TrEMBL record:
One of its GO terms (biological process) is threonine biosynthetic process. Pfam families: GHMP_kinases_C, GHMP_kinases_N. One of its GO terms (cellular component) is cytoplasm. It is an enzyme of class 2 (transferase). It catalyses: L-homoserine + ATP = O-phospho-L-homoserine + ADP + H(+). This is Homoserine kinase. Catalyzes the ATP-dependent phosphorylation of L-homoserine to L-homoserine phosphate. Keywords: Amino-acid biosynthesis, ATP-binding, Cytoplasm, Kinase, Nucleotide-binding, Threonine biosynthesis, Transferase. One of its GO terms (molecular function) is ATP binding. Residues 80-161 form the GHMP kinase N-terminal domain. Its EC number is 2.7.1.39. Belongs to the GHMP kinase family. Homoserine kinase subfamily. HAMAP family: Homoser_kinase (MF_00384).
Length: 320
């Protein structure tokens, strides 16, 4: 297939996400109102230019090894377009999501790379509001989840809102988007001096769990969906986890101490993804209580109530 036409320029905006929400390990995700933005312009001469702005600009590789560039390449090749074959690309990354923080930065980057590839391959298919059709969004999510190794973050970044994902018989990613109760919102609390690589946090999990924990986890994850969609009064009960958080306590002790404090005060605290960010699911009327509690904490915390993103991935044409 011929490469993209010089002059074509696309922008992708992708929300970060909080995964697990307590018991929904590797399955439940929530899109946060915090965004990374990526722009790609097609150049007439072969070559790649990567520009970095915001988070990670001083330490990420400004070349083909950059996560988004690598995923853009894989996405183009999967769509039958040779990498830099007769054309060049300028990729600009504007990152606001903290990395290795449990806010779905790597998932957002992988989704963005694949979405840019989809847009460059079929720019005529880009129409408002999100720019890509449902089947292309599903394809991007499937590709990104396969790379990431779990679909919870990628589904939330692609579709927005509350997502529940599972694998079909062939291992493909399936996602539903239950309607979040309108009063539910999120506070994210990040200990700024900490960072946890998702790979390291996953390595801390053993291969087996006792039957009693498995039963309890299944119960709580079912309750989680009920609390998030119908009865936020049950969020504290519904965010109890028996599968991953205690097993990872030594990986993110500061975060677990904060989760303990929140839960002792009656708030639905959980570790966000693989940490170290802490998520507190709450209702609009209790946000100020959570913020007041966090103000008393000694270490430096970045505390935000970013709101829930309901749009998901947006791909737009900037120039043709
Ligand atoms: N959006 C991104 N763009 C480029 N590189 C990224 C991005 N997100 C993550 N990375 C790289 O991947 C590494 C691992 O991130 P990971 O632990 O998966 O983060 P997160 O929990 O935020 O998803 C980071 O340290 C960084 O080098
Ligand atoms: N279910 C995964 C989620 C990882 O999320 P991240 O935002 O930390 O990448 C896990 O808990 O390992």
């Amino acid at each position: 297939m011929a490469g993209p036409a010089p002059g074509l320029a696309l922008t992708v905006r992708v929300p970060g996400s909080s995964a697990n929400l307590g018991p929904g390990f590797d399955a439940v995700g929530l899109a946060l109102g915090v965004y990374d933005e990526y722009e790609v312009e097609v150049l007439p001469r072969p070559g790649l230019v990567v520009r970095l702005e915001g988070e990670g600009r001083r330490r990420l590789p400004a070349n083909e090894k950059h996560l988004v560039a690598a995923q853009l390449r894989a996405g183009l090749e999967a769509r039958g377009i040779g990498w830099l074959d007769g054309y060049g690309l300028r990729l600009t990354c504007r990152n606001t999501l903290p990395m290795a923080a449990g806010m779905g930065s790597s998932a957002a980057g992988i989704v963005a790379g694949r979405a840019l590839a989809a847009g460059l391959t079929a720019p005529d298919a880009l129409t408002p509001p999100d720019g890509l059709g449902a089947s292309e969004l599903d394809r991007i999510n499937g590709e990104a989840a396969a790379v990431e190794g779990h679909p919870d973050n990628t589904s939330a970044s692609v579709h927005g809102g509350l997502t529940l994902s599972w694998a079909d018989r062939e291992g493909g990613t399936c996602t539903v988007r239950p309607s979040l109760h309108p009063e539910v919102t999120a506070v994210v609390l990040r200990p700024v001096a900490e960072s946890v690589s998702t790979a390291a946090a996953r390595a801390a999990l053993g291969p087996c769990v006792p039957r009693a924990d498995a039963v309890e986890q299944a119960t709580r994850s079912a309750l989680l969906l009920h609390a998030l969609t119908a009865d936020p009064g049950l969020l504290w009960e519904a965010t109890a986890d028996r599968l991953h958080q205690e097993a990872r306590r030594s990986v993110y002790p500061v975060s677990m101490a904060a989760v303990d404090v929140l839960r002792e005060a009656g708030h639905a605290g959980a570790v966000s993804g693989a940490g170290p960010t802490v998520l507190c699911l709450t209702t609009a009327d209790r946000v100020s209580e959570v913020l007041a509690l966090a103000e008393q904490w000694p270490a430096e915390w970045d505390v935000r109530a970013p709101g829930i993103d309901t749009q998901g991935l947006e791909v737009t044409i900037r120039e043709r």
